[in-house]
Specification:
Largest sheet: 6 strands, antiparallel
Oligomer: single chain
Distance between the termini: 20 Å
Order of helices and strands: EEEEEE
């Protein structure tokens, strides 16, 4: 747990419905399970219109005083198999 990984979890899809790669942190592992044996969490940017739409709860931030743009972020989680994720090694 706690490793930063990259991979395509089960339910995270792109606009075309294909599995989408994410980079996140392993937050749970079930070693005895063959499938669906880990959970990965990551931060994702939200459209400001969807910040409190019932499906998402986001945090609104302003990047800096010079940049008047506001951004919304949420924490997402999804399941997968440990073997489909690759550990990210920082150099």
């Amino acid at each position: 747990m706690g490793d930063v990984v990259r991979g395509k979890p089960y339910n995270t899809k792109d606009a075309d419905g294909n599995p989408r790669e994410i980079v996140g942190t392993i937050v749970s592992i079930t070693p005895s399970a063959e499938s669906c044996n880990c959970t990965v969490a990551w931060i994702e940017e939200l459209d400001l219109a969807k910040i409190y739409d019932g499906a998402n709860v986001g945090v609104l931030v302003q990047s800096n005083a010079a940049d008047k743009a506001k951004h919304a972020y949420t924490i997402k989680t999804d399941y997968g198999e440990t073997k489909i994720f690759e550990k990210v090694i920082w150099s």
